[in-house]
Design a protein that fits this description.
single chain, 121 residues, alpha+beta, 4-stranded antiparallel β-sheet, 3 helices, 29% helix, globular
Length: 121
């Protein structure tokens, strides 16, 4: 292992934990799978900070190839949901620690704030 990773393991510690609930829906006649992650929460075990994104669900559509239009993809688009990159790890770090927020992540936080405000109404 030292040949591939020359750093002592004891120098490393977890920087973020996350938890979420997941629903998985698999097509019987298609190769599509949909995962919906919700009740997303984060904690930084180093400093004890934690937070929860109660207003957020992450929907991921997984399918083999790009052949044909997916009914689920069309439904999500009709609901005003468009594909975007999203890393729970990166968002968790930025959510709990101001110094990780970069311009690209800030745009995502602006969108999340809009979602949160709609949910609060």
């Amino acid at each position: 292992m030292a040949r591939n990773f020359p750093y002592p393991p004891e120098d490393f510690s977890p920087s973020l934990t996350n938890s979420f609930s997941r629903i998985t829906i698999a097509g019987i006649e298609t190769s599509e799978r949909i995962t919906i992650d919700y009740d997303i929460s984060f904690a930084d075990p180093r400093n004890g900070t934690s937070g929860k994104m109660e207003y957020l669900s992450v929907v991921e559509l997984k399918r083999e190839g790009l052949a044909g239009e997916s009914p689920v993809h069309m439904l999500l688009r009709n609901l005003g949901s468009y594909q975007t990159g999203f890393s729970k790890y990166v968002m968790g770090l930025a959510f709990l620690n101001e110094r990780f927020r970069k311009n690209a992540v800030r745009l995502k936080f602006i969108k999340l704030k809009k979602i949160e405000n709609v949910q609060a109404d």
